Every structure is written in C-alpha cells, then in structure tokens.
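User: Hey, quick favor. My workstation is busy. Could you predict this chain's structure for me?
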Amino acid sequence: MQPLEMRSHLLTEQVNPDSLNLDQLSSIELVELFNREDAKTIAAIAEAKSSLADAIDLTATALRRGGRLFYVGAGTSGRLGVLDAAECPPTFCTPPDLVQGIIAGGASALVRSSEGLEDRSDDGAAAIAHHHITQLDVVVGIAAGGTTPYVHGALRAARQRGAATIFITCVPIEQVSAEVDVNIRLLVGAEVVAGSTRLKAGTVTKLALNILSTSVMVKLGKVYGNRMIDVAVTNQKLHDRAIGILQDLTELSREDARSLLEQSGRSAKLALLMHWTGLEKAESERLLATHQGNLRQAVLGIIPLNTND
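Assistant: No problem, here it is.
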C-alpha cells in the first residue's frame, strides 16, 4: 500500500483537465459534462470484464460450498457494499447472513460521515474476526483510491484465515498493489470535482457490484431466464411480480397463478416446479433440494422442458 504522503499522486486524486472551469458552467453545461464523464464508467467495466468474471466464478463456487460473501469498505465504498448486500434478500430470497456488508464505523457510518475510522487497519482485521470468517468465505475489499488501511487490514486478516479475497479499486495496480485472489481495477480517471470519489468511482463501483452479486445469484439458480424466481413475496408489489412471473412462464390466468402461488407457500420457483412436473409441494421441495435449488436442472431431471423462457 502507498504511504499517506503519496496519495496525492493517485489516479483518483488527480485534477480533471476537462472540468477546470466547473464553477463557471451553466446548469445544462454541468449536466453535459457529468454525462460525458459518467460514460467512462461503462468503458471501465468493459476493461475489467475478465477480472469480474473471475470474481463471479470464485464467489459462486464458494457459496455453493456453504461460504458467505462479505463486502468491506469505508465511506462511500463501504456504503455501496452494505447497499448491495442489503438488496440480496428481497431480490433473491437469500438468508441475511449469506451476503453481508462491513463498513468502518458500523451502522452509524451509513448516515453520518466517519471517514477518520478508515485509517485503522486493526479495526478491519477485528471486523473479520468478529464475523468469524473462514476458508469457506469470500471477502471483497472496496476502496476507490486503493489505500484505505481499514480495507487492507481486513483483506490481510481474511487471507490469514484462508478466505478467498477480491479487491475492487479505481487506481492501477502499479499505484497500489494488493495480495488478493482477484484484482478488479475500474479506471475511470480523475473526478469532475478533484478527489470526490463518490462520483465516477462510486458509480462504477455500484455497476461492478451489480454485476458481481447478480451474476453469482444467477449461477446459484436464483434466476430462470431473466426472471427473479426466488423473489421474496413480502409486499403487494412483489406479490404482483411473482404472479406475473407465473403467468409469463405458464400461461395461467391471473387467478390460477395466484392460487398456485399460495399452494406453493408463496414461492414462485416452487410454484413453477409444481406446475411443470405435477408434483405436490413437499415432493417439489425435495426435488429442488436435490438440485441445490436450481429450477431448470430440477425440471430437466424429470421431463423435457417446454416453456416460454
């Protein structure tokens, strides 16, 4: 990791030559500038596609074996990790402990800045111990500028425990190195406001986390086609979405789809399996368990699949 005095040379700390007159721009010019700069986030994701794919495969394999996924960060990076983790249970019906976010300063840092805590590498290591991370788990360190001691302390501690490690940062490896299993470098360049990594760096990090967690869930059978068949039916909107999924994939009427959903215990995945195989709920649950929750594999194991996917 780079010494503190060298952080001003990092890519994320440099001055953007295209925004030197930022305070003189009109509102429409500001929007146009941000739009041009934000387009660089898509290119950065494309450049990092191989490392992102490696991270997806590593994480999916670990979770299939009973491991967990942890995001570790401070400030904006930490908040983005917590956000991605928090959205997995309602979207994919995962248990709350499967994907977890760890942020320097704890829950209070989500709504109130506590950036000073990011300098404590021992706190990062302590967080790893607190969550009882083992060789089954995956730890993703997120640090836009790459130097956050809290994140590096967590990654070192995770490696010592045998966990798989991934590093997501917006600086090139020659500026900040990290001994991890997968290095994801999202090079979006200098920010519109120099050093404000909640901008492009934050946006590209959110994009990367979207890709990582969603792709892992796809690999785990949480999606059929492009439908979130493991959606947690916890409110009216999600209830309607589950019914819509059943209608799309079975051509049932809305009333029949609603009845099937209730018979399945409000599990769209289970309802689909029951409909396609003719099995009762308990039998369908056993069949799904045999195929590690993968609907397509469960159905193909019994009958040729002939649905509108």
